[in-house]
Amino acid sequence: MTTVGIVGAGIAGLHLGLALRAAGIPVTLYAERPFDDLAAGPLLNTVAHHHPLLERERALGVHHWPAAEFGYAAHHHWIGGVRFTGRFTHPSCAVDHRLYLPRLAEDLAGRGGRVEVRAVGPRDLGELAARHDLLVVATGRGALSGLFPRRPGHSPHDAPRRLVCAGLYTGIAPAEPAAVTIGVAPGQGELLEIPLLSRHGRVTALLFENVPGGDLAVLNELSPAQDPALFRKTVLEKLREHHPATAERVLDDFALTDPRDLLQGAVTPAVREDFLPLGDDKFALALGDAHVVVDPVMGQGANIASYSAAVAAAEIAADTVYDEVFCRRVARAREEVLLGASAWTNLVLDPPPWLGELWQGLAGDPRRADEFTDNFDHPDRQWRVLATRRRVRAFLDGS
């Protein structure tokens, strides 16, 4: 019987494992650390799950946080003074992955998936490949960082374009209607304000995307553990100066929930090769951030990781030979969505001048604003809208 080994216990690895177990395929998930440590550890991300991902959760029987109860159904945009709201056809939802991933790991184990805690490096891949018919690498961190070669044509950046400062906060009045607020301070960076369910209950995630060397970059230099008052004061000052759409709803009791609930760092976007030969006609298939890393500014990372896992699971279940032909078929099946998300995100990180025409047009056309927002569910469609000035104008003209 076919067996699959999955290295990496993030959303890509867990969704793949759950989908394969639903198809009756034996799975071993190799996790770098125990899930109890993950749950008690520092903030992992502030990602929102969009409707297609939530539908996959329902199909897998792991939709534990219904979007109707915990989600939101709109995006409020504030872009250099231009304001508009776009509404989703179906709601999205954000749950702290320190709650999400351990719960799904329990689901996987309860359905017969094996979870093995061990560090895996490049030298271990041959051993693991010998245990399984197919090895899937679903983590691009640590010793496996850069395992799969970059595809230069789809990886224009060799350094981070933003400094990420993401934290969980109380003391922000919710937007009306409940929504993610996307603020853009031209030349300085972006802010995503996300209603999120955490171990503290409902909180607000503030994901600052700061231009290196800009005025907001100071947020990545301060430690709330060392000087909580200075950190709070600086965040408030920068909100008021650069992100007024969020600052106008800040209350007197505004505070970071816990020093562990802050993530400071940076991401270098990259698209990597889909697979790697391991010898003896065995292959490692790339998944999740081992394959495509996008900056979190458009909130696509977890969503495309889940999508890629679903495509891979369907192809694994439909085949019995996991050779280069199989790997190339997986690559073709998922390419348009993954490359669309990557290209769209990179465009936002280095916006062309004509992107301002889009924001002005959306501010004056609620129907197009809703369509643009709905396309967060469909990054391939969004890229077809945004790829060129001609396409943007055709979208605004309704052609």
UniProtKB/TrEMBL annotation:
Q: Which residues form the signal peptide?
A: none
**Residue ranges occupied by any Styrene monooxygenase StyA putative substrate binding domain in the UniProt entry:** 140-249
Protein's name in the database? Styrene monooxygenase StyA putative substrate binding domain-containing protein
- Pfam families in UniProt: Smoa_sbd
Give the lineage: Bacteria, Bacillati, Actinomycetota, Actinomycetes, Pseudonocardiales
Cited InterPro entries: FAD/NAD-bd_sf (IPR036188), StyA_sbd (IPR041654)
Report the Gene3D superfamilies cross-referenced here.
3.30.9.40, 6.10.250.650, FAD/NAD(P)-binding domain (3.50.50.60)
